[in-house]
Amino acid sequence: MVLKTFGWSFAVTALGLVAAVLYGGWAAFGVVAILSVLEISLSFDNAVVNAGILKKMNAFWQKIFLTIGILIAVFGMRLVFPVVIVAISAQLGPIEAVDLALTDKDRYQELVTDAHPSIAAFGGMFLLMIFLDFIFEDRDIKWLGWLERPLAKLGKVDMLSVCIALIVLLISATTFGAHAHQHGGAHVDKAETVLLSGIAGLITYMIVGGLSGFFEDKLEEEEEREHEAEEEAVRAGKPRSAVALAGKAAFFMFLYLEVLDASFSFDGVIGAFAITNDIVLMALGLGIGAMYVRSLTVYLVREGTLDEYVYLEHGAHYAIGALALVLLVTIQYEINEFITGLIGVVLIGASFWSSVRRNRALARAEAAGSGDKPEVSSGV
């Protein structure tokens, strides 16, 4: 079952890691491995959401999502999108950006380093909004209860996450932006660039969120309409077929899933810039991760176990918050990519271990027949 579901992912992993070694040696191997782990971890909640919606679709639409959808996800967002970001920031054509990355690494690195303040500000704000919206939402399950309970209460204040993000942007523009790191070690004033790019990141986040909300509302409307039609048909003694029920509603599900997948992949792509500026390594690492997200989605649908490791979503979002801050700091200071990658891996690993401990505690309580469930917040 595992080999059948994850077979293609294992094959792509092997090919991707071999390609990384051939491209840049063992250092490249390490960067691709870290990117893969981060992409899988950051997109775990994506797989959970995908599985929850995908299980409602018939076999035809499931196959469409797992074929056409994976082309959009892997080749569109994980391969093309990083090139587009680099091209826009460095004021290059997409083909020229790819050509430079492959044939003139020194010149490419120089251009990307000079464009890094705008990339970091855009990405940092986008990721920061994802993190803030997560921690200010009141959730039944809390990982770091001592922190998440008071933040959830603060989250009742309207537009708080946007206000905090703008304050962080202003501070970043006037401190890091005023002494932005450039190629050759020089520092220049990029405060205006950082401010404009950060606002663009904030606007992008709000547009993506708005599109997701729009398709979610459409999906709910279609599901409600189809449910009413099914009940009416049953009362008339003419049950509707599963294929009819999968028509319009399934189409909106597909669109909704694609928008969601694009929004979820933003954090992985933008976060990758905190680890490396090399679009080849980025494409390899994110491509491997995206394959596992798809395989994990299929596995969750077939097994029906969506909530086994309940703190992973928390760990992934804390990693997103850490990457956001790292990106903003790298406007002025250089930070080693392995340190950046390990921060995310440690946070996600800690949340995974907390989930395992919680599951064991629940199993012991159930075995003891006490009927009392332990505190869902791990208090780590």
What's the gist of this structure?
The protein is mainly alpha-helical. It has helices spanning 2-42, 44-54, 59-89, 94-103, 105-135, 145-154, 160-174, 191-235, 242-245, 248-272, 279-303, 312-329, 337-368, and strands spanning 180-181, 187-188. The protein has one domain.
Helix-residue proportion: over 70%
Q: Order of strands across the widest beta sheet?
A: 1-2
Uncertain segments are: 241-246
- Tell me the strand percentage band: under 5%
| Measured distance between first and last alpha carbons | 34 Å
**Total tally of structural domains:** 1
Report the principal-axis shape.
globular
* Estimated structural class: mainly alpha
Number of helices: 13
Q: Give the rounded overall mean pLDDT.
A: 76
Helix-strand pattern: HHHHHHHEEHHHHHH
- The radius of gyration is 22 Å
* Major sheet summary line: 2 strands, antiparallel
The beta-strand count equals: 2
Pfam family, one: DUF475
Keywords: Membrane, Transmembrane, Transmembrane helix
InterPro entries: DUF475
Protein name: Membrane protein
Characterization of the model:
The protein is mainly α. The protein has helices at residues 2-42, 44-54, 59-89, 94-103, 105-135, 145-154, 160-174, 191-235, 242-245, 248-272, 279-303, 312-329, 337-368, and strands at residues 180-181, 187-188. It has one domain (1-364). It has a two-stranded antiparallel sheet. A hairpin with a 5-residue loop joins β1 and β2. The two termini are 34 Å apart. Mean pLDDT is 76; it is low at 241-246.
